[in-house]
Amino acid sequence: MLVDLAIKLGVSALVLGGVLNFAGMQTWLERKQSALMQDRIGANRAYFTIPLPWWLGGGIINFVLRKLGGLGILNAIADVLKLLTKEDFIPAKGDAFLHTLAPLISVFFAVLAFIAIPIGPPVELWGRVIPLQVADINAGILFILALASIGSYGVILAGMVSGNNLSTIGGLRAASQMIAYEIALGVSLVGIVMCYETLDVGLMVQRQGELLWGWLPKWGVFLQPVACIVFMTAALAETKRVPFDLPEAEPEIIGYFTEYSGMKFGLFFLTDFVEVVLVAALTTTLFFGGWQVPYLMPDGFHLPWAAAVVPVSHLAYVLFGLLSFTVKVVAFIWFFMLIRWTLPRFRYDQLMDLGWKTLFPLSLLNIAVTAVVIVAAGAR
Amino acid sequence: MATLSDQLLHRIRDAHKRRKLTWLERAYLPAIAQGLWLTSTHFWGNLFLHIAHRVGLFRNRPASVTIQYPDQLRNTSPRLRTRHRLTKREDGTPRCVACMMCETICPARCIYITPGEHPDPNVEKFPRSFDINLGLCVYCGYCVEACPEDAIRMDTQRHDIAAYSRDGMWLDIKELINPGSKQFTDAPQKFVQLDLEDFKRLPAAPLPPPPGTGEVPYGSEGTPSQRSGSPSP
User: To the nearest whole angstrom, how far is the Cα of B38 from the nearest Cα of chain A?
Assistant: First the structure.
């Protein structure tokens, strides 16, 4: 019992640490990637040194710190220090309790959604099977979608209780955007559920390891390309970042967090980044095989062009799985960042058109076509 | 209206009409892919150049188009009016004869001169103190135009003027005659009075580079960021 608890805590710490680190490093990625895309250098000034004598490694540590500062990584620490030391301001017309609660709701549910995502294959260790998934929920997809929607309440609440009209508009926009995209998001996943015949995310990832016609990995993106595009668009809208950053829209309304300062603003900022990680992890899990490496089965690589199996030890299999998941998630974070720094913001009516008139009918059509194909292929 | 023919009016109206978009254009995805392709080529190209610079390759191809300001200064135009300096005679004394033309013409009234008697009867006067309050100066250049002796110029090519207080914007005669000798953290001195012999003993600062060449005006001191010791990227 205690061992089970310790294992769960360990896996939770791994997931939470990974998510928060990815989210934190996104401030760095955002600065440097945008700089490289726009032919700039980007952040390269913030650094500090520790006055250590040389026999404690002071020289080496300070050298590394200087190099990290030159790469702009220490800006993340400077950001956090600045946010923590700023005044925590609650407007006179605002509600002090709800004003504090809103960023907590927002970040809590964003982080909580990760417990249903498998980050690696089950580990067999000392006769025990440890799933690298915090909670093995048999309706994991519904759970994740539910949590992602509840997270929006934090944003709406922040807009409503700030006592500022611009914040209120931001909160209302967040609400309408959420309704417009949640539906397309959920309906686009129905096709995936029909293909894998399960709502369990862990099982879904395991079935994506199978091969179609003996050579194509049964990834969601190959089975459901339309659903993949619809899902990625709708999920990008869920993260409330450019080109779907209407709740924020700093040139027109400053956004739902106008009246926030210090670490409470920082939590909203963190939520944005956590949601990007969440969306990247979800896209990976549902459409790009999760932790699956193509042709890698528990006993080794089954290459379609070679009859023999290249054997792989269990530890290497687990490490391959973790690495595969991480690489895919990082690649998607990069891709979403690329979109964020390339496309301009949608106008409000364009956004609603896209959500209601394009993505929603497209996902419905996708369900119909998928159903016909599944029945015609005689799978049932 | 009478001057415009109906045909011309139609053409103007047509020009304002929007072209009907094709189905592919309305799908929006090809345009998005095009944009993403453009930005990602910039990303990977610059990333490759940054890494290549680290190992000493392609040094002549910069990975950014921006000027890295404190490390790198942009070229100044030959006509740019920058911070003032007083020109010197060969023996180190100022060319200024304290005729008060610049102080008189200055629209911002930021020049303050205390004249002293020069031993040479042909020169008659010299400035004991010559102060400019840069906090008031409007950089009009009238002082340079008015000077009959070519004693004041605005060609130091220093335009990164900053101070912690208003008094820090005050330039005394020691700084004016040797630009760059005062650090901006030094306590300001007002109305410093010098004799002719004192001028000869002042350590000479290098002359500013010719305008428009793009050379930094800091000489052996290095660029501002090298002086403050921040890391170079």
Answer: 9
ipTM of the complex: 0.86
Q: Which of B140, B84, B79, B130 is closest to B108 using CA atoms? A: B140
Taking the CA of residue A296 and the nearest CA in chain B, the distance in Å comes to: 30
CA dist., res. B120 & res. B124, Å (int): 6
- The residue type found at A264 is K
- Cβ contact A342–B36 (<8 Å): yes
Work out the number of other CB atoms within 10 angstroms of the CB of residue B71: 14
Helix orientation angle between A165-196 and A140-161, rounded to the nearest 10 degrees: 170
Which residues in chain A touch residue B39, judged by CB atoms under 8 angstroms apart? 37, 338, 341-342
CATH topology of domain B76-212: Alpha-Beta Plaits (3.30.70)
Pairing of strands B170-171, A296-297: unpaired
User: Quick check: A362 contacting B, CB < 8 Å?
Assistant: no
| CA–CA gap between residue B65 and residue B45 (Å, rounded) | 13
Q: Residue window 210-229, chain A: list those with CB within 8 Å of chain B.
A: 229
CB contact under 8 A, B36 and A338: yes
Cβ contact, residue pair B231, A342, below 8 Å = no
The answer to whether A366 faces chain B, any CB pair under 8 Å, is no
Please state the domain extents for chain B. 27-66, 76-212
Global pTM reads: 0.82
Return d(Cα A324, Cα A215) in angstroms, integer: 19
Which residues are CB-neighbours of A351 under 8 A, at least 6 positions away?
A: A177, A180, A237, A244, A246
CA distances from A90 to A157, A166, A172, A260 (A): 14, 16, 20, 7
Tallying the residues shown for chain A, one arrives at 380
Sign of CA dihedral B132, B134, B138, B140: positive
- Ramachandran sector of residue B98 (left: φ over 0; alpha: ψ -120 to 50; beta: rest): left
Peptide bond into A243 cis (omega under 30): yes
User: Is B49 at the interface with chain A, CB within 8 A?
Assistant: no
Q: In Å, how far is A339's CA from the nearest CA of chain B? A: 7
Identify the H or E element spanning A300. Answer: strand A300-302
- Angle, helix A2-37 to helix A262-287, in steps of 10 degrees: 100
pLDDT in single tens digits along all 380 residues of chain A:
888 889 889 989 999 999 999 998 899 999 999 999 999 988 888 888 888 888 888 888 888 888 888 888 888 888 889 999 998 888 888 888 999 999 999 999 999 999 989 988 888 888 788 888 888 888 889 999 898 888 888 889 988 898 888 889 989 988 888 888 888 999 999 989 988 888 989 888 888 888 877 778 888 888 889 999 999 999 988 888 888 888 888 788 888 888 888 889 999 889 999 999 999 999 999 999 888 888 888 777 877 777 777 878 888 888 999 999 999 999 999 999 999 999 988 888 888 888 899 899 999 999 999 999 988 887 55
Closest Cα in chain B to A71: B233
